[in-house]
């Protein structure tokens, strides 16, 4: 999955440091990342690639490090970086360097949070960076940390079948699992039961936790469950959320060739009959 970058290690503890010219920076325009991509050869820019690196370095914000590689954010897109262009972030998924997809996604998460929190929601004054924490602070005492929204994934299984869905009105058109945000006052398990009932009209009887995954593209962390249902297995589709929901046998389920997402990992675990309760 995207977080599986061994033997490298992501250190996401904030440090109040300034960049060096050779340090990497991340810059985004919507869902596009500044990069040099040639098939699986993906290179992220350093400040040395900019015509005026000193100006950019003075505005950069420390993001995190991978081993001894320090990585920074540039909130304002640089006018020019020789050899680099803004490209759909999904094109870095197949990078030969395993930490690049995680860095790209997590950097986007942080960039969106910084951009959406320029002013205090309590008093309206500009936020400033906390000196030692990954936080924004205001003179009124308001302290804000990065927001991470919990989302559940539910793989509904019965005998040798699993429910695969397709989203309605979303760019991603591949197979998906039942999913949804955890609502206020709700446990993860309650969210699973509610989403399954709402989206496909089935009743969950047992839940089995599988794994979790950060997904910085949308600022969420996902918790995946394999779930069993009662004897009623007729799907009632929520047409506002889904365009399709279908039972697949293991033989019918297509192989997931991209193992970046928790969804793909769960489909493959079922297809290969590698789940156990």
Could you explain the architecture of this structure?
With 277 residues, the chain is α+β, with helices and mostly antiparallel strands. The protein has 4 helices and 17 strands. The strands form 4 sheets. Strands 12, 13, 14, 15, 16 and 17 form a 6-stranded mixed beta sheet that branches. The protein has a 4-stranded mixed beta sheet with strand order 1-6-7-2. Strands 3, 4, 5 and 8 form a 4-stranded antiparallel beta sheet that branches.
Distance between the termini: 22 Å
Bin the strand percentage. Answer: 25-35%
Low-confidence stretches: none
Structural class: alpha+beta
Tell me the series of helices and strands, N- to C-terminal.
Answer: EEEEEHEEEHEEEEEEHEEEH
Please describe the biggest sheet, giving its number of strands, its sense, and whether it closes into a barrel.
6 strands, mixed
Q: Count the DSSP helices.
A: 4
Number of strands: 17
Overall average residue pLDDT: 95
What form results from the Cα inertia axes? globular
Fraction of residues in H or I helices: 10-25%
Radius of gyration over all CA atoms, rounded? 21 Å
Per-chain topology:
Layout: E1 10-11, E2 24-26, E3 28-29, E4 32-38, E5 41-43, H1 53-59, E6 61-66, E7 69-73, E8 85-88, H2 99-116, E9 128-129, E10 136-137, E11 143-144, E12 149-158, E13 161-167, E14 178-181, H3 188-200, E15 204-215, E16 220-229, E17 242-249, H4 262-271
Parallel strand pairs: 2-7, 12-16
Antiparallel strand pairs: 1-6, 3-4, 4-5, 4-8, 6-7, 9-10, 10-11, 12-13, 12-14, 13-17, 15-16
